[in-house]
Design goal:
Blueprint: H1 3-20, H2 31-62, H3 72-80, E1 91-93, E2 96-99, E3 102-103, E4 110-112, E5 115-117, E6 138-140, E7 143-145, E8 161-165, E9 168-171, E10 182-185, E11 188-191, E12 201-204, E13 207-210, E14 222-224, E15 227-229, E16 242-245, E17 248-251, E18 269-272, E19 281-284
Antiparallel strand pairs: 1-2, 2-3, 4-5, 6-7, 8-9, 10-11, 12-13, 14-15, 16-17, 18-19
Helix pairs in contact: 1-2
């Protein structure tokens, strides 16, 4: 190798040695030394070249070099973060909060599944997602209100009754059940018919009714023996020689001669059936048979 070529190789070798930390010996005029140095430079040059190629391949495999400071995947993760953070039930989609496939729910609504609901009034999500009220109930201010029980026949609200359980009427504010034979009157349990009912009548609800049929007697009649009768009617019927007076059978005599209330004059009249008359009458004593 000529002198110019040796200089070029020496300079290249020195530069590579400085990069890899190889200390090069100082060149001398000795030709043998030059040959040794040239051989060393050539070996170092080849080794460094191989190392540089390996480093370049490593850089290409990892995708990282001196000019790249942030990994591509990390950049994407940073872009996907929602600021401020999404509300419960929502998801962050490329930096935007969503409820399912729709936009974020309005204020006052909650994302349940993939639907925006008002959990203050929604029966299926009352107060929180998934909190369903019972069938027939209502959701008010986020609280389930159970449906009122049903009573048939209906309770007498005018007397202070209310339905406290299916088919059960309670009395007053406490909702207590009245004992047998009592009814709720003005919100208080008491006798159904204070003082009881006359003979032949029975207490139904809060009134005395006639007989077992519970009939209410018409005006001008009264309940006697379980029947509605006029004043001149008796039940059972009066025997012969009796009159039905005020619902009672009485003898037809001087106090009720022929008719109820007809009185004969003492010592002067008698209650008899004169000749030719078909009914009892107050008759002068001398004319009675």
């Amino acid at each position: 190798m000529n002198r110019a070529g040796l200089c070029v190789v020496t300079l290249i070798s020195a530069s590579l040695a400085a990069c890899v930390g190889v200390e090069m010996p100082t060149p001398t005029r000795d030709s043998g030394a030059r040959t040794d140095r040239a051989d060393v430079g050539a070996n170092v040059d080849a080794g460094v070249a191989q190392d540089v190629v390996a480093d370049e391949r490593s850089t290409m495999d990892t995708g990282v070099d001196a000019g790249v400071s942030v990994d591509t995947g990390v950049v994407q993760d940073v872009q996907a973060v929602c600021t401020p953070a999404c509300r419960p039930g929502h998801r962050c989609d490329a930096g935007t909060c969503r409820c399912g496939a729709s936009a974020a729910c309005a204020l006052g609504q909650e994302c349940c599944g993939d639907t925006c609901v008002d959990n203050q009034t929604t029966v299926a999500h009352c107060g929180r997602c998934g909190n369903a009220c019972m069938a027939g109930g209502m959701c008010t201010a986020g609280v389930c209100i159970d449906p009122p029980p049903m009573c048939s026949p209906a309770c007498d609200a005018a007397q202070g009754e209310r339905c406290v359980a299916p088919g059960v009427c309670g009395c007053g504010a406490s909702g207590a059940r009245c004992a047998a034979g009592e009814v709720c009157t003005a919100g208080v349990c008491g006798p159904a018919c204070p003082g009881g009912c006359p003979t032949g009548e029975m207490c139904v609800g809060r009134a005395c009714v006639c007989g077992t049929t519970g009939a209410t007697c018409a005006m001008g009649t009264s309940c006697r023996g379980g029947r509605c009768l006029r004043p001149d009617e008796c039940f059972p019927a009066c025997a012969s020689g009796q009159l039905c007076c005020s619902g009672a059978c009485v003898p037809s005599d001087a106090s009720n001669c022929g008719r109820c209330g007809t009185r004969c004059t003492p010592f002067l009249e008698r209650c008899c059936m004169p000749l030719g008359v078909g009914s009892l009458q107050c008759t002068p004593s001398l004319l009675c048979p």
